[in-house]
Amino acid sequence: MSRIIGVEESLSNIEDALKAKGYEVIQLRNEEDAKKCDACIITGQDRDVMGISDPVIEGPVIDANGLSANDVVQRVEKYFH
Hints:
Layout: E1 4-8, H1 12-20, E2 24-28, H2 31-35, E3 39-42, E4 61-63, H3 69-80
Parallel strand pairs: 1-2, 1-3, 3-4
Helix pairs in contact: 1-3
């Protein structure tokens, strides 16, 4: 089963890295998008604005601030494997 990873629009490098690893990636625009995801990747600055500070998903919400695309992919893979 393919995991769906929500990624904020400004994180295109992370989106590309996750797609390269075979993940299905959708852009996070609002809380409804987040509810469709197995994990969410955010910049941290929009955490409360997007409503993701409240647990709307079962999976992890990863703050990509200060992390490379490779770091984020490793965190996602560690969670799912």
